[in-house]
Amino acid sequence: MTYWHWKSTWVFLIFSCASQAQQGPLTLGQAVETAVAKYPATRASLEQVSAAAAGINLARTSFLPRVDLLGQINRATDNNVAGLLLPQPLAVLPSISGPVRGSNGLTSAWGTAVGVMVSWEPLDFGLRKANVAVAESTRQRAERTVARTKFEVETAAADAYLTLLAAMQTVKAAQAGVERASVLEKLTGAIVQAELRPGADLSRARAESAMARNLLIQAEQSVDISRAALAQLLGVPPAQVAVQAGPLLELPPGTQPERGNASDHPFAREQSAAVDEIKAREKSLDRTYFPKLAVQGSSYTRGTGVERDGAFLGGANGLAPNFQNWALGLSVTFSLMDLPALRAKKEIELHRERSETARYDQLLQDLDGRREKAQAVLNGARRLAENTPVQLEASQTAEQQAAARYKAGLGTLVEVAEAQRLLTQSEIDNSLAKLNVWRAMLTVAAAQGSLQPILKAGSGQ
Question: How far is CA 139 from the centre of its chain?
Answer without folding.
Answer: 14
